[in-house]
Design goal:
The protein is mainly alpha-helical. Helices cover about 80% and strands about 0% of the residues. The protein has one domain: Growth Hormone, Chain: A (Up-down Bundle), CATH 1.20.1250.20. It starts with 13 loop residues before the first helix and ends with a helix.
């Protein structure tokens, strides 16, 4: 299909165009916007605590439950991504017309409960089911949050707000990796799962009590918008060349991020074991605890900085055109690839961790601009659907394929090519991070049509 802009007279109902004339964010006070953004970001932080804590515990789980790298990849990847992706669109459609704060509260309760259940797993099958449950709950987290933020945030600050929210991803990784490693060393990996899940139950209560549904306020000032079918909405998105290029770039960047980070702890424990033990002993820690803190700080702080700077930079330099939104992640994706190559092949643990901070920052840049672009391609009543569709594709490719692909290549290299487990895993991770080149080129291609395709 043509990549030109889809005429507003066809896909966007007249009432929706009328509703878009006035910025709905004007109906909400700055104080409420800040409070709501803080609560939603906290939800996202613990979304990733529960999602990422398994990564620092991966080697302990592998040894305790006698798993292969392929099974480890399935637990950290497809087990979560499958239900997360399958339920994303139905939950988003519910969010388009239901009470989003209540939906969020229920979702957080579900995924936190299943995270606690991971601590009871005593086999691959039990852990797989528990991770599926985490995916079920987290499917209801991001789409309602994205649409809420878009509605209560002024348009000229949208990328920055979404980037701040997206910073919950690396922040959650920091908390999950750092505390997960320390707790696992002190009390075992099962206790780490218990303590990762409990805070989410309290945050669910915060969302239920304090968040308001903006749709009620907007409805007082805007005409009623006729509901479109899901297929109408999906066809409109699929017809946009900008969406196709951006979703390709984001999905491949997700493949890099999830495939790489899911096996970072096993990579360091296998390839830098002696140096890691020596450094950990200097701090009075064991290897897993020290590694959790090191990975949490490098990935978490650098990732949060990269995420926020990506959105801030795109908002800052966009001017009269939106080309900055895909340009920023395009450049970051391409620059990150040689940095990943270097950190995976250096013999120095300290240098590898320094390079990891740089790579972690660059690979997080795409989040704010990607969601800002995609939200701008959608009408007010289809924003949660757009968010869900974006996440479905990114997670099926990035999270669903990334970790299992690394595990499969690693097992093949070890079993068939007779490489050590450490060398096989290094080779697998080098293959996966190479897809960042294609990701950068895809984002760059979106520059040609982003202005014409943006409708709100």
């Amino acid at each position: 299909m043509s990549g030109s802009a889809i005429p507003l007279t066809e896909p966007v109902p007249a009432a929706a165009r009328s509703a878009m004339v006035e910025d709905p964010a004007d109906k909400f006070t700055p104080g409420y916007r800040r409070m709501a953004l803080i609560i939603l970001t906290l939800i996202y932080v613990f979304n990733f605590v529960d999602r990422q804590v398994v990564n620092i515990l991966a080697e302990s789980i592998k040894n305790d439950l006698a798993l292969s790298d392929t099974q480890l990849g399935l637990i950290t990847g497809i087990a979560f991504a499958l239900f997360y992706s399958l339920l994303g669109l139905p939950i988003a459609r519910l969010a388009e017309h239901g009470d989003r704060p209540k939906l969020l509260a229920v979702a957080v309760t579900i995924w936190s409960g299943f995270t606690i259940m991971c601590g009871f797993a005593n086999s691959f099958a039990h852990m797989l089911v528990a991770r599926l449950g985490v995916g079920v709950g987290e499917a209801g987290g991001v789409p309602p949050s994205h649409s809420l933020i878009t509605e209560f945030t002024p348009k000229d600050k949208r990328a920055s707000a979404l980037a701040l929210y997206s910073a919950g991803l690396p922040t959650g990784a920091l908390v999950g990796l750092a505390l997960g490693g320390v707790i696992a060393d002190a009390y075992g990996w099962r206790v780490a799962f218990f303590l990762a899940g409990v805070p989410g139950l309290l945050i669910a209560l915060l969302a239920f009590v304090f968040l308001k549904e903006p749709r009620r306020e907007i409805a007082k000032h805007a005409p009623k918008v006729e509901r479109e079918s899901v297929w109408t909405v999906l066809k409109r998105f699929a017809a946009l060349r900008t969406f196709r290029w951006v979703i390709m770039g984001a999905s491949l960047q997700g493949l890099v991020f999830y495939g790489f980070t899911s096996f970072l702890a096993p990579f360091y424990l296998r390839n830098h074991a002696d140096e890691l033990a020596t450094l950990a002993a200097g701090f009075g820690l064991e290897s897993t605890g020290f590694l959790g803190i090191a990975l949490g700080l490098t990935l978490g702080l650098a990732g949060a900085l990269g995420t926020f700077c990506g959105g801030w930079l795109a908002d800052r330099v966009k001017g009269d055109t939106l080309k900055a939104y895909p340009t920023v992640p395009a450049v970051a994706s391409l620059v990150a690839v040689p940095i990943f190559y270097a950190l995976l092949t250096t013999a120095s643990l300290e240098l590898s961790l320094v390079l990891l901070a740089a790579g972690g920052a660059l690979t997080s840049v795409y989040l704010g601009p990607t969601h800002a672009i995609c939200q701008g391609l959608s009408t007010p009543r289809s924003r949660a659907t757009m968010s869900a569709l974006t996440l479905v594709i990114i997670n099926l490719i990035g999270l669903g394929i990334g970790p299992p692909l690394v595990g499969l290549i690693s097992d093949y290299a070890h079993n068939t090519m007779s490489l050590s487990e450490g060398a096989g895993l290094r080779m697998a991770m080098l293959v996966v991070v190479s897809t960042g080149i294609v990701s950068g080129l895809a984002f760059w291609m979106a520059r040609r049509t982003v202005d014409a395709d943006t409708v709100s």
